[in-house]
Design goal:
Elements lengths: L17 E3 L2 E3 L21 E6 L16 H11 L2 E5 L2 E4 L14 E2 H5 L15 H11 L12 E3 L5 E3 L3 H12 L4 E7 L4 H14 L20 E6 L2 E6 L2 E4 L4 H9 L4 E5 L2 H6 L8 E5 L6 E7 L11 E6 L7 E3 L2 H4 L4 E3 L2 H6 L3 H21 L1
Parallel strand pairs: 3-9, 3-15, 9-13, 10-13, 14-16, 15-18
Antiparallel strand pairs: 1-2, 4-5, 4-6, 7-8, 10-11, 11-12, 16-17
Length: about 375
């Protein structure tokens, strides 16, 4: 997360199959009804700009909190398992992890009790231990490959794990093979960004990833200079190297800067600003969206995107007029599965095409919105 991460973001997560105590359980994100905000956006976009969180999105570890792979995944499980207090005791209301609450009144374990060490080992989450073990096994660095000090990390259990999820590299291959124009902007509150940029740059330019040796053929550039975004009551300021863009020049200048990005790069967002705004939407990572711009679609992927604006991590700022400078804050639910993807870390680990699927869902929902808006 930011200069000081907390437990909120790594301290950087098909409905109605079963019913348990009156609550449904589901293991996947339900696609929400197509809302109204970007209904003017054209499906024939020339470019998609993908804003990627790091911790618990493409990394399963955290440098700030010194969480290894096992602890990071255990913490994530505590953010996607649900229950509620009854007669002074915690009662589970789910049998499997899910991003969305299985019933009204349910809360995640972490939101009620905070960070709990060894959640599935000796803690109350023992019922989810098998889920942890299954996904740790999927995360293991292949035994037939030579360990790579940049691409794998040793967990607390002594085993070697992928540091960056293979599904991220698969996404890069998929988008290029599908002929889509895109750029990727890493957006994190944490301190892992410089290392991520360096490792991704080497994989893309030198073919250092043994599972993806052909990445250099994608011809994707990486800006290894980590930028910063800082927010205040006066607006937002973006800096990277000698570059500086401020909302004092109009918020559209920041939108145009992000929209014109090429290849891969990244920015450290302002954790302290989020904390001062009580971890609500108003202090979140800013995402500028122009529903009148047919050439660009911005999509943000983050495990802490939630359909509760009092507890979410991205601040969508939607322009009110073509070429105008005024924006309004759009609720998370308005843009869920259109511009905002709540990352399902378990699926990002288990399904190599997870990110590709989620991005295409957003693009298809935009098309549906456009058709509804023009009808």
């Amino acid at each position: 997360m930011s200069d000081s991460e907390d437990s909120r973001e790594t301290p950087e997560t098909s409905p109605d199959d079963h019913r348990v105590n009156g609550c449904g359980t589901h293991s996947e994100v339900a696609t929400s009804p197509a809302p109204s905000v970007p209904r003017l956006l054209s499906v024939k976009k020339k470019k998609i700009v993908l804003h990627f969180d790091l911790n618990n999105t493409i990394l399963v570890s955290d440098a700030v909190t010194k969480q290894g792979t096992v602890a990071a995944l255990e913490y994530f499980l505590s953010t996607v398992t649900w229950g509620r207090m009854a007669k002074g005791k915690w009662e589970w209301r789910c049998e499997t992890p899910s991003l969305l609450p299985p019933c009204e009144g349910a809360a995640t374990y972490s939101s009620h009790f905070g960070r709990v060490a060894s959640f599935t080992t000796v803690g109350p989450g023992k019922r989810f231990r098998k889920v942890l073990e299954e996904h740790l096994e999927l995360l293991q660095w292949p035994s037939h490959l030579q360990p790579d000090k940049e691409l794998c990390v040793r967990g607390e259990d002594g085993k070697l794990y992928h540091w960056i999820l293979p599904s991220f590299f698969q996404l890069l291959q998929d988008l290029v093979s599908q002929g889509l124009e895109f750029s990727i902007i890493f957006r994190t509150f944490g301190t892992d960004l410089p290392r991520v940029l360096m490792v991704v740059k080497r994989a893309l330019e030198q073919g250092t990833h043994p599972l993806f040796p052909d990445l250099p053929a994608l011809k994707l550039s990486v800006n290894a200079t980590a930028g910063r975004i800082r927010c205040s009551t006066k607006g937002a300021v973006l800096t990277r190297g000698e570059e500086r863009v401020s909302s004092r020049e109009g918020e559209r200048s920041l939108y145009q800067y992000m929209s014109s990005s090429q290849g891969l790069g990244g920015f450290q967002d302002h954790f302290d600003w989020w904390a001062r705004n009580t971890y609500s939407i108003l202090g979140g990572k800013p995402l500028w969206i122009d529903p009148f711009d047919f050439t660009v679609q911005h999509i943000f992927i983050d495990d802490n995107i939630r359909q509760n604006d009092e507890d979410t991590i991205v601040h969508p700022k939607v322009f009110l007029d073509p070429e105008g400078s005024q924006t309004r804050t759009a609720s998370t639910s308005e843009l869920y599965d259109l511009c905002l993807i709540q990352n399902d870390l378990l699926r990002a680990i288990s399904d190599p095409t997870y990110f590709t699927q989620r991005i295409h869902i957003c693009m298809e929902n935009y098309e549906r919105n456009l058709q509804q808006g023009l009808s």
